[in-house]
Design goal:
The chain has about 525 residues and is α+β, with helices and mostly antiparallel strands. It has helices spanning about 15-20, 25-40, 60-70, 75-80, 115-120, 165, 300-315, 330-340, 355-360, 380-385, 470-475, 495-505; strands at about 85-95, 140-155, 160, 170-175, 180-190, 195-200, 220-225, 235-245, 255-260, 270-275, 280-285, 295-300, 320, 325-330, 345-350, 365-370, 375, 395-400, 405-410, 415, 440, 445-450, 460-465, 480-485, 490, 510-520, 520-530. The strands form five sheets. Strands 21, 22, 23, 24, 25, 26 and 27 form a seven-stranded antiparallel beta sheet that branches.
């Protein structure tokens, strides 16, 4: 079958209407958008791929416009503005050097646990030390060692922020600015709990400084890390905010921002900027099996920095509110045993004698669910909230007490500088006087009255044996632990324990809550109940 040829003149003319509707500038704009999409989505350049459609001589001018539009924006303008506020921090520390010992295989010139040893391990691998600082004199006596970190100015008169572990124990602190000038600095104050330090640079009154961000970064926001990695000052890396509210086990106030901008040894104390050029956090730690960046770094939020730095500048130390309770998270098992709908709040394991909470009537087993009307998600959030309030403030706590909600008003005390727990395991004086005890069916525990076991005290029942395959063993019970309460009732014998467990089963509980004393501290443990 022969196809009928088509007369081009019979087709509708679209070319002329298009030209009449689009000016050369509009056409160039459309071409730029199309080419830009190709570059953004496929990574093509004007000389490769889709952009070739604009390479004819007739569209040379349009092609030039496309090249301008699709050039990557980058961070150069932001970096140019904020980089002068970032400083390199160098510290000298006098350390007592160990005598030569053939049994010591550590090449570190720093004593284990010393500030410099902690400094390099904070940002390092197994040995934590950069090559230039490995080895050293080992003939005893004292020597001066150096370390490096980062920081940034927060005011034109020379106040700067860095990490506590950068300047901890330092005899001398020097900073080098972005223009290469070196200044002597003094430590104004430090706060080990948040790993922040405030230093003051002498010799200037018009330093470029950075502003701390007022807002909270969102996951996915861009972030720029600027600092002194491996002594290479003025280094800029980019990434995004990977997560927030991270607890890395460094202290009760952990609330880190996780970023993936490459951060290495020497970045410690340096700023993490947002795209507004404001400091969203202070880089303080990395996760690094190898000693180098693997894309997981942690920054102290600007809100924390602002609060701590204000107190350090004012009085050189940080005062925190304190209610005097030992707290623990509310797990799903604990929530079930307490009849809570959600595993939220902070469970009071033990109020400290004569502390604000004890004086206000808060007891072991209470769950603090809100502070001044703001819900408490977990134990860490309660610690951060209370710690962020000044001593002497009055606070209102919402408390779940024996299944009933109540409001407790108290005045915050001041968090002691150090709170030590007695390391009494309850085992030392048992000896041959420890009785066999009585089995508690289906819990995997054997218990005896505490007053019958030397060193176990007068209250509760002491655990004399734990079945290693039992749920009790999985939840950390060990010989010498003292069970003080079961399902909210004081116990003094194995019979009391069995009675409380039977009552919990009758109430169709899936687990039973026990208050356990181990060493010098108490905790609650929810043990699942076997059916039948």
């Amino acid at each position: 079958m022969n196809e009928r040829p088509i007369d081009p003149s019979s087709l509708p003319s679209y070319r002329q209407p298009l030209r009449s509707l689009l000016s050369a500038r509009k056409f160039a704009l459309m071409a730029s958008v199309v080419a830009g999409l190709g570059v953004a989505v496929y990574g093509f350049s004007p000389s490769h791929g889709p952009a070739d459609v604009f390479s004819s001589p007739a569209h040379a001018q349009v092609n030039n416009e496309v090249r301008k539009v699709e050039r990557p924006i980058g961070f150069a303008d932001i970096v140019e503005r904020v980089k002068p506020s970032v400083i390199s921090v160098k510290v000298n520390i006098t350390e007592k050097l160990a005598k030569d010992d053939s049994s010591n295989n550590d090449d570190s010139p720093f004593q284990p646990g010393s500030p410099m040893e902690r400094f390099f391990r904070r940002f390092g691998g197994p040995d934590g030390l950069p090559p230039g600082l490995r080895g050293g004199p080992r003939g005893g006596g004292r020597g001066v060692v150096t370390g490096q970190g980062s920081g940034f100015f927060i005011s034109p008169d020379g106040y700067a922020v860095t990490n506590n572990h950068v300047v901890d124990g330092s005899d001398k602190v020097e900073v080098t600015t972005d223009d290469g000038k070196t200044y002597t600095a003094k430590v104004i104050g430090t706060d080990a709990r948040t790993d922040l330090a405030l230093i003051k640079v002498d010799g200037g009154s018009n330093f470029p400084f950075a502003k701390l961000s007022e807002g909270k970064p969102r996951i996915g926001d861009w972030v720029l890390a600027v600092g002194n990695p491996f002594g290479l000052g003025g280094t800029v890396t980019a990434g995004i905010v990977s997560a927030s509210g991270r607890d890395i086990g460094s202290g009760p106030y952990d609330d880190f921002i996780q970023i993936d901008a490459p951060v290495n040894k020497g970045n410690s104390g340096g700023p993490a900027f947002n795209t507004e050029g404001e400091v969203m956090g202070v880089n303080t730690a990395i996760y690094s099996p190898s000693g180098g960046s693997v894309g997981i770094a942690f920054s102290i939020p600007a809100s924390t920095v602002k609060n701590v730095v204000a107190q350090l500048k004012d009085k050189g130390t940080v005062s925190r509110g304190w209610i005097g309770v030992q707290i623990q998270p509310v797990t799903s098992d604990i929530a079930d045993s307490l009849g809570l709908k959600k595993a939220e709040g902070a469970l009071v394991a033990e109020p400290q004698a004569n502390g604000p909470a004890a004086k206000a009537g808060i007891e072991s087993g209470d769950v603090i669910t809100a502070v001044n009307g703001e819900p408490v998600k977990d134990a860490r959030e309660l610690a951060r909230t209370i710690g962020g309030l000044p001593p002497g403030n009055s606070v209102k706590l919402n408390v779940l007490h024996k299944g009933q909600d109540k409001i407790v008003n108290l005045t915050l005390g001041q968090l002691p500088n150090s709170v030590e727990a007695k390391a009494d395991t309850g085992k030392g004086d048992q000896g041959s006087a420890t009785p066999r005890g009585t089995d508690v069916p289906k819990l995997g525990l054997t218990v005896a009255p505490a007053n019958s076991v030397a060193g176990a005290g007068k209250d509760g029942v002491v655990v004399t044996e734990v079945d290693p395959k039992s749920a009790a063993a999985e939840r950390g019970f060990k010989e010498g632990d003292v069970i003080l309460e079961v399902a909210g009732k004081n116990v003094a014998s194995a019979g009391d324990v069995r009675e409380a467990i039977d009552a919990a089963r009758t109430d169709n509980k899936n687990s039973v809550l026990m208050r356990v004393k181990s060493g010098g501290s108490s905790r609650f443990v929810a043990l699942p109940l076997a059916k039948g």
